[in-house]
Amino acid sequence: MEIEMKYLVKKIDFNIHSYKNNQIIQGYISLDPEIRIRNIGDKYFVTEKSTGDLIRKEKEYQITKRDFLNKSKQIISNLIKKRRYYIPILDGFIAELDIYELELDGLITVEVEFNDLKLVNNFMAPEWFGKSITYDKKYKNKNLSKLNKEKIKNGKVID
Known about the structure:
It is a single chain. The chain has helices at 65-72, 117-121, 141-144; strands at residues 2-9, 21-31, 34-40, 43-49, 55-56, 58-63, 80-88, 94-100, 108-114, 129-132, 152-153, 156-157. By secondary structure, the protein is mainly beta. It has a single domain (2-157), classed as Hypothetical Protein Pfu-838710-001 (Beta Barrel). Strands 1, 2, 3, 4, 5, 6, 7, 8, 9 and 10 form a ten-stranded antiparallel beta sheet that branches. It has a two-stranded antiparallel ribbon with strand order 11-12.
């Protein structure tokens, strides 16, 4: 089970490069049901996610590079490439700051994962977080994978 809030980013007025980070490359081999393949460093994964917003079921398992390359031929939308920074924030949470590239260049989001709903209800987003987009379906990665550069303006998805 995944409980996650997602936000746009208002400002980054600190050095993000001092934080642990990874390049993430992912693609979708199915949008309904949602099945994605992902490469993080030298690790490869297949993830299945249920529908939903704040709370979703998630099954993820590691695969080999060869399996990843074979499944890459089945990708049905644009590849998503992003740099993820892991930034500690208050109360022991980790903000996962994603800076998108390729077709989504200019988009920056941040996510925080929670163990239970009580933690979500008591969460105070840091000053640098912007508007919550947890319930905005256009910011789901599977939907972002269908966009092109013309749909990103001033760090937001335009309709």
